[in-house]
């Protein structure tokens, strides 16, 4: 038990050092990207720094698998260089028992990441995106000039712009009958979104279509029972990766229940699970580095680990994009790279042990 705690402590120190090196590096790239927009609208240098700081939890989650790999290789490599692992092996401690400590630390890391993913990273990232959009006078749109589009079985809704969480402008509603023929087109200059899903449309133009004519009417106000809840509207304006797992589950269910394409959101959900699996895979890959050549230099191990980390990152991105392009099952596209790495790590470990 004493050896277990000692190894776990060294691995924790290695993870902290890896985080201290990698997180500022990636954040520096984020800051450079934001500094290009300084001077546009009311976006200032301090806003760029605040944006970068608010993105720290998200960046940590994204690079956590590589932190796990480099941190564990550095920690166990240092023990090997100091001949401590040799002493443990001479005392009868098997490589399997030594490996349990890093895996336990990895499980703790995954629990910490899950907490960040649910309660901190999405909220901070969404706030950062919102503040930046306001400062740059940008609107929350799914496409430049296209607005926000969504539908259910009988209606198509387009929101030109969300002025704030409870008010929209340039709203269009297309209503279809059971034979999918257009029955009515409603355009409103503004829409006030109420908590009971009732929208109060103002400055409304209504066109009703029949076989023989188009009836046009106008109204100052019109009440419309929306199929969208306020939280669904907010979700539509956010990047899929910025949503928490519970938000993604709810939104995927909403999209599928209304017959819409949910692949990008389902992939984002499964990639969050895949990130945890990838962290375990990286920890498992770090073991053969150490036990394969226990007296080898630490610097070479770190270089090889870094190269593997880059290769894994590219593999993960290729699988995700190919999955969307080829309409693969999101779970397969998100989890396949991690599953392949775990299988390779197991085969490598069997040869080493």
From TrEMBL:
**Bilayer topology:** Multi-pass membrane protein
Name of the featured protein:
Lipopolysaccharide export system permease protein
GO BP term, pick one: transmembrane transport
One of the record's GO cellular component terms: ATP-binding cassette (ABC) transporter complex
Location comes to: Cell membrane
Give the superkingdom in one word.
Answer: Bacteria
Keyword Plastid recorded: no
Instruction: Enumerate the transmembrane spans.
Output: 7-29, 60-81, 101-121, 273-291, 303-325, 331-349
């Amino acid at each position: 038990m004493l050896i277990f705690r000692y190894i776990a402590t060294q691995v924790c120190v290695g993870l902290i050092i890896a985080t201290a090196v990698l997180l500022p590096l990636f954040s520096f790239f984020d800051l450079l990207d934001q500094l290009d927009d300084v001077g546009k609208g009311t976006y200032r240098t301090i806003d760029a720094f605040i944006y970068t700081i608010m993105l720290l939890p998200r960046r940590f989650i994204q690079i956590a698998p590589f932190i796990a790999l480099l941190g564990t290789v550095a920690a166990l490599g240092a023990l090997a260089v100091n001949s401590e692992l040799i002493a443990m092996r001479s005392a009868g401690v098997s490589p399997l028992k030594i490996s349990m400590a890093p895996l336990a630390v990895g499980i703790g890391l995954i629990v910490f990441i899950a907490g960040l993913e649910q309660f901190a990273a999405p909220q901070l990232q969404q706030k950062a995106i919102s503040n930046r959009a306001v400062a740059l006078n940008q609107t929350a749109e799914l496409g430049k000039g296209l607005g926000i589009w969504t539908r259910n079985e009988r209606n198509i809704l387009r929101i030109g712009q969300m002025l704030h969480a409870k008010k929209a402008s340039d709203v269009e509603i297309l209503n279809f009958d059971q034979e999918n023929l257009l029955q009515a087109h409603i355009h409103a200059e503004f829409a006030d979104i109420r908590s009971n899903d009732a929208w109060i449309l103002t400055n409304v133009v209504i066109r009703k279509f029949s076989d023989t004519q188009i009836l046009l009417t106008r109204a100052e106000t019109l009440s419309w029972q929306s199929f969208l809840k306020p939280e669904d509207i907010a979700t539509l304006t956010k990047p899929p990766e910025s949503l928490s797992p519970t938000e993604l589950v709810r939104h995927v269910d909403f999209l599928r229940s209304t017959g819409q394409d949910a692949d990008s959101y389902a992939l984002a959900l499964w990639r969050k699970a895949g990130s945890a699996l990838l962290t375990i895979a990286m920890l498992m890959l770090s073991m053969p580095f150490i036990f394969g050549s226990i007296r080898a230099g630490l610097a070479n191990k770190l270089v090889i680990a870094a190269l593997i980390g880059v290769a894994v990152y590219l593999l993960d991105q290729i699988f995700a994009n190919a999955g969307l392009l080829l309409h693969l099952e999101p779970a397969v596209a998100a989890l396949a790279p991690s599953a392949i790495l775990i299988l390779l790590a197991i085969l490598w470990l069997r040869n080493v042990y």
